[in-house]
Amino acid sequence: MNRKDREITDQQEIIDVLHRCNTLRLGMFMDDYPYVVPVSFGVDEVDGKVIIYFHGAIRGQKIDCLKKNNHVCIEADVFYKVEPTRIGITARYESIIGFGTIEETDEEEKLHGLRKMVEHYQFSEYPIDRCRGLSNTVVYRIVVTELTGKRNLPGSD
Fold first, then answer.
1. CA geometry: angle at 30 spanning 32 and 148, to 5°?
2. Is it true that domain 4-152 has CATH number 2.30.110.10?
3. pTM (2 decimals)?
4. Read out DSSP for 10-24?
5. Which of 28, 54, 131, 133 could form a disulfide with 65 if both were Cys (CB 3.0 to 4.6 A apart)?
6. Where are the domains of the chain?
């Protein structure tokens, strides 16, 4: 990381940033080019590992990519504003970058992953059992192997 002064070194702070993000961008391998897609997501921590859940249709380009290679890069950010500084202008933000592997969940973990997603978006009262047997929806988990964070908040320069 070039700007060490903006690096977030505390792992819990990085996870806290992830909880503030609305959209996760999932980078995958396609034949000759990378493929990036935004997804809704939920976060869990299991045995000291960060697990990210997202859902999608049972067919499509994202699924084709994941079948070929389950290694992914993730990015999420919170953009606050652009403001003037002593020497110009700067963006105020927090962001995370991570790497991991993706696995399809079984039916039980599918409901757990959907629960984490609705909790992430402040709908924890939603009756998740309504989702049981959703045959056109697949829930995946990303087992995060590396997670870094960066921020530039007001007053930091």
1. 110
2. yes
3. 0.89
4. -HHHHHHHHHH-S-E
5. 28
6. 4-152
Tokens coding 93: 């933000």
Give residue 133's Cα distance to chain centre: 25
Distance from C-alpha of 54 to C-alpha of 38, rounded to nearest angstrom:
10
- Tokens standing for residue 18: 């992830």
- pLDDT for 85 equals 87
The token duo for 12 is 């819990």
Residues of the chain below pLDDT 50: none
Instruction: Give residue-wise pLDDT tens across range 96-141.
Output: 999 999 999 998 899 899 999 999 998 878 777 776 667 778 999 9
- Between CA 122 and CA 5, with CA 14 as vertex, the angle to 5 degrees is 135
